[in-house]
Amino acid sequence: MRYRGLGLNRKRVMEELEQGLLMQPWAWLQLAENSLLAKAYITKQGYALLISDLQQVWHEQVDANVVSQRAKELNKRLTAPPAAFLGHLDDLLRPLLMDTPGPGKATFSCDHVAEALILRVRSELSGLPFYWNFHCVLATPSLVSQHLIRPLMGMSLALQCQARELATLLRMKDLEIQDYQESGAVLSRDRLKTEPFEENSFLEQFMVEKLPEACSIGDGRPFVMNLQSLYVAVTRQEIQVRQEHQSAGDPQPSSSASSPQGTENQLLNQPKEPVSSAPSLPVPEKEPTGPSGPVKRPQLSKVKRKKLRGLFS
Fold first, then answer.
1. Is 136 exposed, middle or buried (0-12, 13-18, 19+ CB in 10 A)?
2. Which of 31, 162, 168, 188 has its CA 20 to 30 A from that of 219?
3. pLDDT value for 250
C-alpha cells in the first residue's frame, strides 16, 4: 500500500507539472549561436521544460527524486534537499526567461546529442560551484499539439474574431461621422479626413502591402514579444472548457491531457506571471467634458448601436 501511495503521489506531481507548463508563456533565448523558444514550470516537487528551435521541440519533466539523484552526480560537494536545488534552478531560469538580470552569475549553453538537447547551467550555490544539465528528448506529437498547434489555432480564431469586431466598429464610426456631417459639422483640420471603411479593399491592400512583414516569423522573437498575453489567455480558456466537460461528465478530447479537477483549479487560481511585456488591449477614451459637464453627442437614428464585446471580456 505504501508503494501504491507513492505512485499516486508521483502521478499527481506529474499532472500538476504538465498543466502548469501548459499555462506558461513562451520566452525567447539567445544562447551563443542558438536562438530558442522555451517555457518552464518549476515547483518544490519537480520541473517541466519545453524548448524549440522552430525545427524540433524537446521536453523534460522530472520529479524531486530524479533531481536529487542528478544533483548528487553533478555536485558531489553540495548536500541539500531537492527543494533547495529546485528553488535555485527557478532563481536561475526565471531571469533568463524574463530577459532580466539574475541575482548571481550564471552561464547557459546547449548541445545536441543524437536527437536530444542538453541545456547546461553553471552557477554558484552557497559559495560552491553548481552544475546542472537539463536532458531534453524529442517531444511527442501530442505534446507539440498541446503547446503549439492547438493554442496557435485558437489564437488565429480569436484574432479573426477581433478583426471582425473592429470592422463592425469602423462601419459604425463611419455612420456616426456621416450623421455629424449631415447635421452641419465640419472638420477643423483637413488632414484628419478619412475615407469610409471598405473591408474588401482593406483586406486586398493588406495582403499585398502588409502580409510579408506581418507574417515574418524570423527566429520566433516577434511571436514571444507580441502575442504571449493572448497565448496564455487561450491556454487558460482551453483548460476552463475541459473543466466544464468534467463537471458535466462529458468525455475529454483525446488530444488533451487528463488531470484531476482540483489540480486545474489550483493552477488557474495562481497569479499570472508573463515573461514578456506583450501589449494589452487599448482602453476606451473618456467622453469629452465641457464647462458645464459632459458634452452630449447627437443620437444616431440610422443604426441601432449594440455593445461590442472585447477579446478578453
1. buried
2. 162
3. 61
User: Is the CB of residue 100 less than 8 Å from the CB of residue 48?
Assistant: no
CB 263 within 8 A of CB 15: yes
The cell for 42 is 518549476
Query: What stretches of the chain adopt beta strand conformation (E)?
Result: 27-31, 34-43, 46-52, 57-63, 107-113, 116-125, 128-138, 289-290, 293-294
Question: All 3 cell numbers of residue 297?
Answer: 453627442
| Closest CA relative to residue 253, chosen from 142, 166, 147, 125 | 142
- pLDDT means per 10 residues, the chain with 313 residues, are 61 92 93 89 96 95 95 92 94 88 80 92 90 96 95 95 95 94 90 91 92 87 91 91 77 43 40 39 41 43 43 37
> C-alpha grid cell for residue 308?
461590442
Determine the pLDDT at residue 152.
Answer: 95
Cell numbers standing for residue 162: 477581433
Residue 292 DSSP SS3: coil
Query: 155 with 145: CB under 8 angstroms?
Result: no
Size of the chain, expressed as the number of residues it contains:
313
Distance of alpha carbon 270 from alpha carbon 255, whole angstroms: 24
User: Which pLDDT value is given to residue 121?
Assistant: 94
Contact 111, 120 (CB under 8 A): yes
Question: In the 8-state DSSP scheme, what is residue 282?
Answer: P
pLDDT computed for residue 104 by the predictor: 66
Do the strands 289-290 and 107-113 form a parallel or antiparallel pair, or are they unpaired?
Answer: unpaired
Compute φ and ψ for 167, nearest 5 degrees: -65, -40
Cell of 126: 552557497
Q: What is the pLDDT of residue 266?
A: 41
Q: Which three cell numbers stand for residue 265?
A: 483549479
Q: Is 37 helix (H, G, I), strand (E, B) or coil?
A: strand
